[in-house]
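Bump. Still looking for Dyp-type peroxidase family structure tokens.
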Amino acid sequence: MTSDREPHLTRRQWLTSAAVIGGTAVAGGSLGGILHHSQGATTASSTSDEPTDDVFFGHVREPFYGPHQAGITSAIQAHASYLGFTFHPHATATDVVRTLRILTHDAALLTQGKGALADTEPELAHTPARLTVTVGFGPEFFDRAGIPHLRPPHLAQLPSYRIDRLDPAYGQTDLLLLIQGDDPTSVAHAARVHTRQIRSFAQRAWTQHGFSYARGTHPQGTTMRNLMGQVDGTHTAHTQASDEHVWLRDSDGDRHVGATTFVLRRIAMTLDTWDEVDRPGREDALGRRMSDGAPLTGTAEHDPPDFEARNDLGFPVIAPYAHIRRAHHPDPTVRIYRRAYNFNDPPTPDNPHTTGLLFGSFQRSIPNQYLPIQNRLAELDALNEWTIPVGSAVYYIPPGVREGQFLGEQLLT
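Sorry for the wait, here they are.
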């Protein structure tokens, strides 16, 4: 029998405690990881009848207003939807401004957990889970907006590479919306709201969905693995280097301060043939160990690779064709800020390229930073044997805004 001095749990309290304990286990298997997110996290012994945000993360918000748009150098989210839009032929420069006003207004609400204007399902917006909406302009946008003289001179289509097998279905568009978040429901809701709100002025040309690690499955800061099993993007430029490598400055024009440029490449993977390669062959092609991402000349992922090291036979430890060597440019100013997501779409009879990487690159200058790296990779990269670029587009990402402004206002007013 239960002593009068022993606590007695009701069925509701027992279920609540079990839910909190189970949520903690799924969220990372380590209470320390959760406490790092929020000091003073409520434990499973709390008398509260509801789970805490420290466990479920749904109400965590990313700031919308600021000198730069969110979703660029912020910690990568678990889910992403890239939406490409083209303006209707009848759309005027005034319609372009209206489109940007609507997008800005709705994004400012949705990212903060509020329903958008005339939102028919506002409840879907209440848990944003670090939702961000980043807006970009394609090269032709500046013509449609009546400001061709303000288009950055380096914003142009990439050159044609022999490795490309580009599908027009994933080609250049006038507008880009990059919607990211830790909850696929809020991401999907934001995509639907934005598409519905601007359909009088623009139509969606394509949608590309991507994913990274689910929040809580790995310690914060863990480098994502792509679907070839590789630790992907170890040498991405750090946020503290962003002012130099990412953002446009006064010398680029007063109206462009705080902006950046973005390259989106859809890279399909031929995993069936990759499966035939043994581990030493994979590591030779990559220049890194598959187990932990360390360079073949190092012991840990972030060790700098030694491109001069040679083996007992006198051959380079990191081969001339290894991806890590080809992606490394000898000029230290040639750096990009990389933001990539996996994709794994349902296969179709006429499209075998349904698995791969949505490779995103932010940089101040596409010709001075991105192209030198891409040229080296296209020329001689062993991974080209198992990867195929099937989509390509470039965008100008305007600066962030203050409350009351709209994205692109410094260009259009």
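Residues 1-51 have pLDDT under 50 and may be disordered.

Edit: fixed formatting.
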